[in-house]
Records
---
Amino acid sequence: MASFNSTCTNNALIILEGLRLSVTSIKRKIRPSKKYTGTTEEICRAIINDCFDSKNNYFRVSPNNFKQFWARDFGMCCESLIYLGYNKEVKQTLLYAMEKYEKQGQITTNIMPNGHPLDFPSHTPESSAYMLHSLILLNDKKLIEKYKTFFSKMAEYIFENDIDKKTGLLRKDKHFSSMKDYAFRQSDCYNNCLLAMFANDLKKIKVNTPLSNYNYKKNIEKAFFKDYFLEDLSGRKILGEYIFASDANIFPFWTKVFDAQKKDKSLFKKIIINIQDKKLDYPWPLKYTTKEEASKKMHIANILCPGYETDTQWIHLGLCYMKIVSEIDKPLLNKYLFQYETLIQKHKTFYEVYDNNGQVFNRLLYKSDEAMLWCSIFLQLYLENKKNT
């Protein structure tokens, strides 16, 4: 699937996309941000509507920096968008993306605004996982049937190229894009959980692949769990303690590989304590790590946007965390929802990322994106909570 020429093409496209992002950010520094008016729900609804590209019929991550399709971000928002009544737009988005992916012969992290599929910074199995999971959530049987063979081929590619055949886990000698794209990690827990979700979802649509032969919950627990889930398999420690990374401890539950509501409820409660003790949810959720535990090996893009994925406050990560919290701790969820609603009403938009001190993230060549599709996750939690109180 990946040849020298395709790798060179991908790298050239990454450079062009980086330049586009920088130019867009600089323009946004000069002109005032769009302010949305109304109630919290009205603001979120208006943002979601702005995120839908009505010309090409797909949900982009935002109308600003990330005005393209991202498999990860859409996959995180898909359930919420369906809950909020955007079934038609969800289906159109899946048709848009899957048509381009099938034509390309691979599922990439995103599709550029010009319609060209792109992996940033590299290939990752999570892209296939999010796309299949979104199709299952939509529950359009004809659409699932249409792409079963394609997903089977993607699973075969992943098995042959990406995993350790003994364990079924990701290879340690290969870098994969992840939720924390800039960080170079060795077989990170986040990506392995998405791989496990992919394997489980393939079974749901009755596609049998070599991935079906692994007990992913058992293998992830054996490889990663040491009082909490390790960030990756590098063995990296600070002062004799393994790194605690939020994404590594949220996605075993977000992917349903582990059960936060029943069997593994006590385990997730311990993870909440770890998050609070390290103040990763302060001033609101959520930081990946403390500054001391942040990844040291980073993609070159970090030079242009220093500190982007260290101890900053990432809102999509916070929302995925809150999704699990909503299942087991309503008072804590209420606290977090109030904090997020305060931010929405203060800024009249929905920002991407904040500094660790709570200021909107801003660097010389990059300003935090805004009007994020992620607000759909917040709105689902917000409306469900109002309904139940």
---
Amino acid sequence: MSELVAIRPPQRGLPKSDKPHLRDLPLRQLQAWMAENLGGAPFRAAQIFEWLHRHRVVAHDEMSNLAKADRERLALTSRIEPLGVDVVRIAGDGTRKLRLRTIDGQAIEAVLIPNEGRGFTLCISSMVGCSLSCQFCATQTLGFIRNLSTWEIVDQVYRAQDLLVAHAEQARLAWVPRIVNLVLMGMGEPLHNFVQVKRALEILTDPRGAAIAGRRITVSTAGLVPAIERFAREGVADEIGLAVSLNATTDAVRDRIMPINRRWNIEQLLAAVRHIPQPKRRLLTFEYVLLADINDSDDDAKRLVGLLEGVDAQVNAIPFNPHAGSSYRRPSAERIARFVSIARRLGQPVHLRTPRGDDIGAACGQLALEEATPCT
């Protein structure tokens, strides 16, 4: 079991290169880089941005409407190589887990979850490992290797969409399913990698690129209060949803299962959350992982409703997903149903999350890079 510290330092920094990775740059920064390094008409930057983020090219030569000389200069002065795809596993319910490889050899995971209607929800990572020590989460056992760069966050979306294209072609589908919802709930604490995550969101929501609507994106946090305040102050919360991983109704329990609570307790966390602007038609989300005999009592359900009084929020109740090395257990179906029933009866909207991809270690809290044979 890892040391119970609130926030762990990274073992290394972001990889350095003498050439910028162009998918690191929002359009305004790409325009500035082009003007300084290559010159040419300003519209060239917009063309290149579309190649990178709408068409998802992985080599400079694929930018077919640029002059050959421009492509050659770009190749000499910049990088656009993608993440590697090591393993793709497919669960019985259609969930797909991708193990991706960074240029410096680090492994991360992303999960494609089929929706009941059209399209997929994609869960992506923001770190290699995690800087926090939430005891019920498998990712924390990896330690904290490093943050992901902007392009490494962005490119998870593109590798996943390319996978959907390949599977559609293989199955001869009439249309290619798309990623319609994006959640930053994979490996890592997104708000502890705030600068890179914010820039990735700017790129992914740009209408000239992937054009994912901000209202379709949710960022999860375990409770870094200063970063939550920054999330609101810098306007990210105006479009992007926030999901707060609460998981306890008393400080004594939350201190034990989520050591971040020792830095910022439940009262401080909820005070910060109450100042977040809430866009129309969108509820704030609180995630609550149900752990047998830890946080699943009738009193916990009642206290949960009391804590969230006056907050326009939905609770996602998540039955614990077991993983190797964990001593925690999933509550019985009866206990889960009673917890949810009590909270609903007292007026709190609760959605009971159905485990997705738990047979391949892809469900909430299970991302731990276990060795596996690819499924195709």
---
Amino acid sequence: MKTRITLSQLEISCLIGVLDPERIQPQPLLVDMTLELDSKTAALSEKLEHTWDYDRLTEQILFILQTGHFYLLESAAHVLARWVLIPPISGEKRPQIDRVQIRLTKPAALPGSAQAVVEVEASAADQHYEQEDKSWGSVDIVEETRRMGLYRLTLLPNTELPEHHHMKMREAELVLHQGLEGTQDSQPYAPLQIGQVFLWQKAQLHSYRNVGQQPASLLCMDSPPFDPQDEILSEAS
């Protein structure tokens, strides 16, 4: 049974555009997104975990658009499509999105009532994602452009992503699952909540560990794209 879930006219304030003022002053962006999926399991179980939570999806859209600092609507729409089409991690009960339609509108880009709009449509069958194995789990490369990289970091149960910092990359991370704990500046670990966002400053130490029973993920935005030479482990690690 095919279902379409639609977010309509989601308004976000973010940096987007190529002109100098657009790189300094956030502007409104309207997001329309339609997800196509099989909702039979959710319909029969009436459990939110078997479908896509509107609030969580909105958090992820906000995170990507507000931390990506995109130059083109085309880039933003493409990265959003790649993200929602990525397969679920092991143990995750939400269904795979089969197809997505995205419409991004910049209402303030043109004079008068004219609007600048970009629309993208993509299917899961046409996507391929590279995955890197780590001692603590894995990294899925969602997409990399010239200026940014979006990654899904998945920690296995009872593992720790070592304490580290960056000197070149601007990094932001969004908590996607329960079970994670985090630390910054070598402070004691503290439980993290789904939807929690971290904007790491250069040279700021940070680390994560999974104390749950299932794999748990973070969504990571790096600008510029991830550079392994800029993943500087602390002496304690």
---
Amino acid sequence: MKDLAAAYTRWRRTAVGHITEQVERDLMFALAGPLARRRVLDVGTGDGAYAIEAALRGARVVGADVDAAALDGARRRARDRGVSIDVMPASFEALPLASGSFDVVLAVTVLCFVDDPRAAFREAARVLAPGGRLVVGDLARWSTWAATRRVRGWLGNPTWRRARFWSRRELAAHVESAGLRVVDVRGAAHFPKSSVLARAIQPIDAVLGRLHAPGAAFIAVAADKPELGRSAP
């Protein structure tokens, strides 16, 4: 959505936003694994934060987004950080990319605004090379954050009126329907929208995620594309 990248950039500058971004980013890259010399697609790249981080870890990165202005900003930020990323206008549901062209696909807080999630997962699976990994992180359904956002949507906020929130089971089911094999599901941001509580819980947030503790504001699924000659179980 237009202006969404700018909103996330402003959010990261707040104390609770910075902590939330950190625990979510740590989870996503832990699930993605080593990225040096890997071909990475960051779908819905927005301001390029994840694309830039992947490039800093040695990946060859393409960032895709429907917002051309956001892509220009992502390219500038990458240059300022001393890395190079390719950017392209594209929606998650229709990626103008060759099949099997990426080792890792990242999708962070983009499915919540996608009109056709099944098409998006099919496209992610298509552009992955055999043995490649999809890591999807999005807004969790069962959290105080989601409850607040739903209320804001009911009151007319255009962003949250459109947004969809996800359960672990739903994300995993979509992954499997695209022919991928789920290898891990974890949560992050097990705190309400409070900088004090965020600072207190941050040191144990990753542990809570591995234990599938309730209340996570963010959930992430890692899934692998079967090697040639094999099918997902």
